[in-house]
Amino acid sequence: MTEKNESERSALLSGRPVTENEEHMTGCGATVCCDPHRALHRYIALCFICLLSFGSYFCYDNPAALQLQIKQTMGIDTQQFMILYSIYSWPNVILCFFGGFLIDRVFGIRLGTLIFSGFLIVGQSLFALGALFQSYLLMVIGRFVFGLGGENLAVCQSTYSVFWFKNREINFVFGLQLSLSRIGSTFNMNIMPVIFNAFGKTADPYFKLSMALWFGYLNIDTDENVAVRGLMDIRASRILKRDALETGEVIRFRDILDFPVSLWLIFIICVTYYVAVFPFISLGPAFIADKFNTTTAYANLIISLVFIISAVASPIIGVIVDYTGRNIFWVALGVLLTLGAHMILAFTFAPPLLAMCIMGVAYSVLACALWPMVAFVTPEHQLGTAYGCMQSIQNLGLAVVAIIAGGVVDSSGYLILEVFFCAWLCGKNTSFTTCRQLMHLIPPPPSSPSH
Please, is 154 exposed, middle or buried when counting C-beta atoms within 10 Å of its C-beta (0-12, 13-18, 19+)? Predict the structure, then answer.
């Protein structure tokens, strides 16, 4: 690498202004907001990156917010209802890996984002039409198509974030992404029942359900946002000379066999944690209403506290993790707190507000610390594939556990369901054991920037 390229790279990673000996920008590119070397420009890009997940998570949790309405209107039981979640996850057991590979090797991140956003739009449209045409099968197909885009779009978002913020405040960035995702889920949990009921008691329930789901369609990331995001990335790549810094290596299918043990341990922690959170969120409103004898609206509000708290806490926790650099400690703490929240719900009659607050903080802690760790142990040319594998394994767990959880509720009730979730968090080998193994295998993260 030439002395000039080395100095440019040093300037990029340190966040300092480019010196007079380095490449100057002219015109509008020289302004703070248009210069990719500057923090303000990166954060403008981050705003567009975060929009990827807002609409996706809003629509993903539509069934949870309308659980009773969907079950009553479509005439289905809890296990059939949970198929709306498992069918989202099943295809992604394989397709997330291929999606990540396609992002790395074929489409590139920009075209891949556009394609997978299109799947979201088509899937949510079919889901809404299924309600309108009184077809549970069409709703399932819609969730299937939606799943083809949703998880792969999350891979795009993670890859975008690493490209723009690697060796910087990466934990904060993932925390902010999580915050916007949770805001989308919170908005969904509280607004969807209101939209459903706004049409009055005399309106056709199929029409009411369909109109509520069409509202979700309006929140999906638009093609215009995808185009702006892509153009910013093209411009930044040219100015920052990212291509000159690449090694020229490309991902191959067999490279997955060479992933380090530490990366596979991250995958294991991911799946065993999330299967105790997302299926609970899906079934939580009915559980809270049943055990604590509350209204559905209040139960939705209580469950949405997980999202509200994580939306507020995630950026703050991301900064703390960046400052301390002890991702493993924070992952272990997140697991412990979540286990405590489930045990409170299962074995006490303490107000559910307490457990939901604990779970909201725990979810933020784990997500902020866990997802950036992939970038610590994976070469940049394999990032899309690595995140795709992580999403694939996560979706395998979610697909299986969603169906099992619905069956547990129908056959044994919510107490056994909570014990089931606690068992996942404990596991055959505890999460602490896995984290201690990770501590020896994962190299220390890049030096944290000053805040």
Answer: buried
Low-confidence ranges of the chain (pLDDT < 70): 1-39, 96-97, 99-100, 104, 166-168, 217, 219-255, 427-451
- 10 located within any domain: no
Amino acid at 133: F
Helices (H) and strands (E) in the chain, counts: 21, 0
Q: Quote the pLDDT of residue 103.
A: 72
**Amino acid letter, residue 132:** L
- The CATH code of the domain that includes 151 is 1.20.1250.20
- Cα separation, 194 vs 235, whole angstroms: 43
260: nearest Cα among 163, 379, 371, 427: 379
444 Cβ contact list (under 8 Å, min separation 6)? 325
User: What pLDDT, on a 0 to 100 scale, did the predictor assign at position 163?
Assistant: 75
Examine residue 423 and state whether it is found in any structural domain, yes or no. yes
Neighbours of 341 (CB within 10 A): 29
Is residue 81 in some structural domain? yes
Residue type, 250: V
Q: What pTM, to 2 d.p., does this model score?
A: 0.65
Token output for 432: 């602490």
**Number of domains observed in the structure of the chain:** 1
Residues in the chain: 451
CB count in 10 Å sphere of residue 347: 12
Q: Quick one: 138 exposed, middle or buried, by C-beta within 10 A (0-12, 13-18, 19+)?
A: middle
DSSP per-residue codes, 69-94: HHHHHHT--HHHHHHHHHHHHTTHHH
3-state SS, residue 55: helix
- 4 part of a folded domain: no
